[in-house]
Design a protein that fits this description.
The protein has four helices and 15 strands. The chain is an alpha+beta fold. Helix 3 packs across helix 4. The longest helix has 13 residues.
Length: about 190
Protein backbone atom coordinates (compact mmCIF):
# COMPACT_ATOMS: atom_id res chain seq x y z
CA UNK A 1 0.00 0.00 0.00
CA UNK A 2 1.20 3.45 -0.73
CA UNK A 3 1.33 6.17 1.86
CA UNK A 4 -2.06 7.81 1.43
CA UNK A 5 -5.70 7.09 2.10
CA UNK A 6 -8.90 9.11 2.39
CA UNK A 7 -11.15 10.00 5.30
CA UNK A 8 -13.71 12.22 3.63
CA UNK A 9 -16.37 13.67 5.88
CA UNK A 10 -18.52 14.89 3.00
CA UNK A 11 -18.92 11.46 1.33
CA UNK A 12 -19.96 9.39 4.35
CA UNK A 13 -22.54 10.08 7.06
CA UNK A 14 -20.71 7.63 9.34
CA UNK A 15 -17.36 9.36 8.80
CA UNK A 16 -18.94 12.77 9.44
CA UNK A 17 -20.46 11.51 12.71
CA UNK A 18 -17.12 10.03 13.77
CA UNK A 19 -15.28 13.32 13.19
CA UNK A 20 -18.02 15.25 14.99
CA UNK A 21 -17.79 12.97 18.03
CA UNK A 22 -14.00 13.21 18.19
CA UNK A 23 -14.00 16.99 17.82
CA UNK A 24 -16.39 17.23 20.77
CA UNK A 25 -14.39 14.77 22.91
CA UNK A 26 -10.94 16.09 21.94
CA UNK A 27 -11.36 19.80 21.05
CA UNK A 28 -7.61 20.43 21.42
CA UNK A 29 -6.70 17.87 18.70
CA UNK A 30 -6.45 19.00 15.07
CA UNK A 31 -7.95 16.18 13.01
CA UNK A 32 -7.14 15.92 9.31
CA UNK A 33 -9.79 14.89 6.81
CA UNK A 34 -9.72 14.39 3.06
CA UNK A 35 -6.51 12.89 1.66
CA UNK A 36 -4.49 11.56 4.61
CA UNK A 37 -0.67 11.57 4.63
CA UNK A 38 1.69 9.90 7.12
CA UNK A 39 2.12 11.83 10.42
CA UNK A 40 -1.38 13.32 10.22
CA UNK A 41 -3.90 12.80 13.03
CA UNK A 42 -7.15 11.02 12.21
CA UNK A 43 -9.93 9.00 13.88
CA UNK A 44 -9.26 5.42 14.99
CA UNK A 45 -11.57 2.85 16.58
CA UNK A 46 -9.90 1.05 19.48
CA UNK A 47 -10.82 -1.73 21.88
CA UNK A 48 -13.65 -4.22 21.85
CA UNK A 49 -16.19 -1.42 21.98
CA UNK A 50 -14.49 0.41 19.07
CA UNK A 51 -14.03 3.62 21.03
CA UNK A 52 -13.23 6.57 18.73
CA UNK A 53 -9.85 8.14 19.55
CA UNK A 54 -7.44 10.38 17.64
CA UNK A 55 -4.24 8.76 16.38
CA UNK A 56 -1.25 9.89 14.34
CA UNK A 57 -0.26 7.75 11.35
CA UNK A 58 3.18 6.19 11.72
CA UNK A 59 5.22 4.45 14.42
CA UNK A 60 8.41 6.42 15.07
CA UNK A 61 11.51 4.64 13.75
CA UNK A 62 14.05 3.49 16.32
CA UNK A 63 16.66 5.94 15.02
CA UNK A 64 14.19 8.82 15.37
CA UNK A 65 14.32 9.57 11.63
CA UNK A 66 10.94 9.17 10.00
CA UNK A 67 8.05 6.81 10.65
CA UNK A 68 6.90 3.30 9.77
CA UNK A 69 3.42 3.50 8.24
CA UNK A 70 2.68 -0.11 7.27
CA UNK A 71 3.18 -3.58 8.73
CA UNK A 72 3.06 -6.79 6.70
CA UNK A 73 0.20 -9.03 7.82
CA UNK A 74 2.31 -12.12 7.06
CA UNK A 75 4.98 -11.27 9.65
CA UNK A 76 3.24 -8.99 12.15
CA UNK A 77 3.10 -11.69 14.84
CA UNK A 78 6.87 -12.26 14.68
CA UNK A 79 8.36 -8.79 14.06
CA UNK A 80 9.65 -7.19 17.25
CA UNK A 81 8.38 -3.79 16.08
CA UNK A 82 4.77 -5.02 15.86
CA UNK A 83 4.34 -8.23 17.87
CA UNK A 84 3.26 -6.66 21.16
CA UNK A 85 0.89 -4.27 19.41
CA UNK A 86 -0.65 -7.16 17.46
CA UNK A 87 -1.37 -9.11 20.64
CA UNK A 88 -2.55 -6.17 22.75
CA UNK A 89 -3.28 -3.01 20.71
CA UNK A 90 -5.23 -3.61 17.51
CA UNK A 91 -7.40 -0.87 16.02
CA UNK A 92 -9.60 -0.10 13.07
CA UNK A 93 -8.68 2.71 10.69
CA UNK A 94 -11.89 4.18 9.20
CA UNK A 95 -11.48 5.17 5.57
CA UNK A 96 -13.39 6.12 2.47
CA UNK A 97 -10.69 4.74 0.15
CA UNK A 98 -6.97 4.61 -0.48
CA UNK A 99 -4.52 5.51 -3.23
CA UNK A 100 -1.97 3.49 -5.12
CA UNK A 101 0.27 4.34 -8.06
CA UNK A 102 0.98 2.00 -10.95
CA UNK A 103 4.48 1.45 -12.31
CA UNK A 104 3.53 3.93 -15.03
CA UNK A 105 2.95 6.55 -12.28
CA UNK A 106 -0.84 6.58 -12.73
CA UNK A 107 -2.66 7.36 -9.48
CA UNK A 108 -5.66 5.17 -8.65
CA UNK A 109 -8.19 5.43 -5.85
CA UNK A 110 -9.55 2.15 -4.46
CA UNK A 111 -12.80 1.81 -2.57
CA UNK A 112 -15.29 -0.74 -1.40
CA UNK A 113 -18.40 -0.95 -3.62
CA UNK A 114 -21.56 0.29 -1.89
CA UNK A 115 -19.68 1.23 1.30
CA UNK A 116 -18.90 4.93 1.68
CA UNK A 117 -16.88 4.08 4.81
CA UNK A 118 -15.01 0.89 5.68
CA UNK A 119 -12.11 -0.09 7.94
CA UNK A 120 -8.48 -1.09 7.56
CA UNK A 121 -6.69 -3.29 10.10
CA UNK A 122 -4.31 -1.28 12.26
CA UNK A 123 -2.04 -1.52 15.28
CA UNK A 124 -1.42 1.29 17.77
CA UNK A 125 1.17 2.24 20.35
CA UNK A 126 1.66 5.02 22.90
CA UNK A 127 4.55 7.46 22.44
CA UNK A 128 5.54 10.72 24.10
CA UNK A 129 3.60 12.45 21.30
CA UNK A 130 0.44 10.39 21.91
CA UNK A 131 -1.19 7.46 20.18
CA UNK A 132 0.47 6.36 16.90
CA UNK A 133 -0.70 3.69 14.45
CA UNK A 134 0.31 1.60 11.43
CA UNK A 135 -1.88 -0.03 8.77
CA UNK A 136 -1.52 -3.72 7.94
CA UNK A 137 -0.91 -4.73 4.35
CA UNK A 138 -1.30 -8.07 2.60
CA UNK A 139 -0.88 -9.58 -0.86
CA UNK A 140 -3.11 -7.84 -3.39
CA UNK A 141 -6.23 -9.63 -4.56
CA UNK A 142 -7.36 -9.69 -8.20
CA UNK A 143 -8.98 -6.25 -8.00
CA UNK A 144 -5.74 -4.49 -6.96
CA UNK A 145 -3.05 -6.71 -8.52
CA UNK A 146 -3.11 -5.00 -11.95
CA UNK A 147 -1.90 -1.82 -10.19
CA UNK A 148 0.17 -3.03 -7.19
CA UNK A 149 1.26 -6.27 -5.52
CA UNK A 150 0.24 -5.16 -1.98
CA UNK A 151 -2.93 -3.72 -0.49
CA UNK A 152 -4.22 -2.76 2.95
CA UNK A 153 -5.96 -5.45 4.99
CA UNK A 154 -9.61 -4.40 4.49
CA UNK A 155 -11.98 -5.57 7.21
CA UNK A 156 -15.74 -5.73 6.73
CA UNK A 157 -18.74 -6.91 8.73
CA UNK A 158 -17.95 -9.38 11.49
CA UNK A 159 -14.24 -9.21 10.69
CA UNK A 160 -14.12 -5.75 12.30
CA UNK A 161 -15.41 -7.26 15.54
CA UNK A 162 -13.02 -10.21 15.30
CA UNK A 163 -10.04 -7.89 14.74
CA UNK A 164 -10.57 -5.98 17.99
CA UNK A 165 -11.98 -8.90 20.03
CA UNK A 166 -8.93 -11.11 20.62
CA UNK A 167 -5.50 -11.90 19.19
CA UNK A 168 -6.73 -15.38 18.27
CA UNK A 169 -9.64 -13.95 16.27
CA UNK A 170 -7.37 -11.30 14.75
CA UNK A 171 -4.90 -13.98 13.62
CA UNK A 172 -7.70 -15.57 11.58
CA UNK A 173 -8.33 -12.23 9.86
CA UNK A 174 -4.71 -12.19 8.66
CA UNK A 175 -5.35 -15.17 6.40
CA UNK A 176 -8.62 -13.99 4.84
CA UNK A 177 -8.47 -12.54 1.35
CA UNK A 178 -9.71 -8.92 1.40
CA UNK A 179 -12.93 -8.08 -0.47
CA UNK A 180 -12.81 -7.01 -4.08
CA UNK A 181 -12.37 -3.27 -4.48
CA UNK A 182 -13.30 -0.87 -7.25
CA UNK A 183 -10.69 1.47 -8.69
CA UNK A 184 -10.82 4.71 -10.53
CA UNK A 185 -8.04 6.67 -12.14
CA UNK A 186 -7.27 9.95 -10.40
CA UNK A 187 -5.83 13.17 -11.74
Amino acid sequence: MCGRYTAEEDTSIDMRALYRELRMSYPEVQLKSGEIYPTETVPLLCGRDKTPVPGTWGFPKYDGKGVIINARAESVQEKVSFRDAFYHRRCLVPTTGYFEWSRQKVKYRFGLPDAPMFCLAGLWTHTNEGLRFVILTTDANASVLPVHHRMPLVLTGEMTDAWVHSAQDAARCLGVSPPMLVRQECC
